[in-house]
Fold this protein.
Amino acid sequence: AQTVTQSQPEMSVQEAETVTLSCTYDTSESDYYLFWYKQPPSRQMILVIRQEAYKQQNATENRFSVNFQKAAKSFSLKISDSQLGDAAMYFCAYGSGANSKLTFGKGITLSVRP
Amino acid sequence: DADVTQTPRNRITKTGKRIMLECSQTKGHDRMYWYRQDPGLGLRLIYYSFDVKDINKGEISDGYSVSRQAQAKFSLSLESAIPNQTALYFCATSAPDRVYGYTFGSGTRLTVV
């Protein structure tokens, strides 16, 4: 079974600085997708960024980018120019090509210091 | 209106009671899911359905049942609620094109006392 590991339960970053959230996964599949979801205090789950495993280029969405290391099975999220509104819980998720079920990591709580 | 609507938003119930959490979606997707979120455990899959006639257990289905009343509706029931079922419950839907991930509802916070 696929597993997703987020080993850091909490992180903190100074406003305007850059922070990287780590995620590793375990799979024997070759066709899969990786996601980062944000959960602010409103508890809504918001898709931040996605990466298709067959694409070598790292995905970017404005201040959010990923470092996708397929051989190492690592998928970290970098947040640049951190803002107070980035404070939330972040979940890494994996979905294989065989079906669309997502497996989630345990999440990391990010706080942003003004 | 939200793409995925969950009701109720919050609920407190007593041990032993039967409770139903409802989910409806306007995305037109066939695939729907129920997850529960617990602190330190992330989201875990309870049940999923790939079409109206297809219901599958997830990793933590014991104590739960589901009903797929229509393409747009997928309900989760706790037959006899117990305190360790206190959690945040999410319904989600996805298109067959998996690259877009899930669209989530806003969650139901259930407390069993």
Notes: Chain B has no helices and eleven strands.
